[in-house]
Amino acid sequence: MIELKSQAEIAVIREAGRIIAECHREIKKLIRPGITTMEINDFVDAYMRSKNAVPAQIGYNGYQYATCASVNDVVCHGFPTKYTLQDGDIVTIDMVALLDGLHADSAWSYAVGNVSDEAQKLLDVTHDCLFKGIEQSVVGNRIGDISNAIQVYAEGLGYSVVREYIGHGIGRKMHEEPQVPHYGPAGRGPRLREGMVFTIEPMINIGKHHVTLDEKDGWTVRTADGSLTTQYEHTIAITADGPQIMTVL
Question: 80 with 220: CB under 8 angstroms?
Answer without folding.
Answer: no
